[in-house]
User: Fold these one by one.
Assistant:
Number 1:
Amino acid sequence: MNQRILAIITGVLLTISTGWSASVLKMDIDDLTQRSDIAIVGKVQSISHANESGRYPETLFRVQILETFYGEGVSNEVIICLPGGPAGNGLTTYVPGMPKFKVDEKVALFLVLDEDRGVAVPTGLEQGVFRVKVHPETEEEYVVNQTVDIKMNSIGSSEGDGKANGPSLTEFGKNVKQKAEKLKQKK
């Protein structure tokens, strides 16, 4: 009898937990380009936190814009605002799936602008964040993303031989600019 009750409780808890789970629409480069207001290459300058009354805690990343692939209305920097961070009284709010950044990190970003607040959010969260890495032998910059399949010519292999497994930053930028131009022509 006790095993049966335990099985019922386990089933109910599994049902409830799957109902509470969240997901993000899986996107490719075309989707990211179409759904974003801007796409840039930038360098993270600083990380700060906001915990305004009546709002959830937020983490703010100030990013210096080094290159704009497409989009307008942004000067030389953008503030990325993500939920989570210090909540006061020694507590921290953690939101799974939010991208994390480090100061001085170089990134290529697809962003949706919130002009009312003067901030931006990565399109598709982590999907819209491409890390810029430097190839150890050629010193060429290339981009990687954990969640988006980058269908472009690669400057190396993905066999774990120490070479880059993503497109060069230059190739990536050209590809995104071309996709944005095609989208403009369709409108």
Number 2:
Amino acid sequence: MHHFFLSFDQKPLAKTLILSKSKYPEQYHQISKVLKLKAGEQITLLNNSREKFVYEINQINLDKKEIYLRLQKTENESDSSFHINLFIGIPKKDKLEFIVEKCSELGIDEISPIITQRTVKNQTKTERLLKISAEAVEQSHGFYLPKINEAIDLRNFNLKLSGLNLIFHTQENLETNDLKQLLNTLDTNETINVFVGPEGGFSPDDLKILNKLENPKFIKLGERILKTETAAIAISALLKYHL
């Protein structure tokens, strides 16, 4: 069943809706022109909440350029109660867009770009990232967008983060923790803050700052050196699977 964001304000959707070309041009075009759906078929509309709204198409009036919908049922999310916030060192080129796309598909709750000592690109286009995220959530049949924060310099970082702080690194002589063991001790509804560095990883100065977080846990993902985008997606998938 095809999924579409109708709004992002989390307000409940009505029992009957009219999708007009003038008010909802993208949705109207996708349903009537691209997918060529017919009366009697169903679609799912999203409002960026933990609910989905399943509608049946009653009529598509091409003259008035309107689609008439009637609510059939709502579905509630049964996903993990943990809140995962990915703090990602901004990578080069458009790799952040790729990370946002894939982590939105996986159901990460929050994405926070950070500027580190080895960051080359220190600007992000939040509006474009939100558009990419919305398309990924629709495609993956998710419920809501991750919150995408503006980029912040690690030197100005709030070190009093609540929850479990997991810092993934590639350093040889640094104490490491067992990820599985840490996750097994988590309480329900806890926040998990995941830190992944840019190309080249976190510098020694970055790690000194991160070590000042409340109860930091340093993690190494084996001997292979992963690209930033690979590490971010792999770690996100591991956490979603385990939790």
Number 3:
Amino acid sequence: MLDYAVCEVSGKQYKVVPNKPLDVDFLGEGLKQVEAKVLLLSKDGKVKIGTPYLKDKITLDFIDTRKANKIRVAKFHAKANFRKVVGFRATKTRLLLTVEK
């Protein structure tokens, strides 16, 4: 059984655990599944490491699109009476690796 994997989705590396949702950067609308390149694979306690990738590929199922927590950015200029606060909420895509037991 698959313990965990480290895979690359849209240029970033994520640790993927079976049946646990994973939030990645927004991948677009209308997705059903996403195929990810595998860098490291742990199966039954044995670890396989790629150079840089393994031949295996992981298929992640699309769950939904959601917004992340708000990040507040404050700009301030000393002695100029300038203060500005801007909020930002990134859009995330939630994926799931389903593995039957």
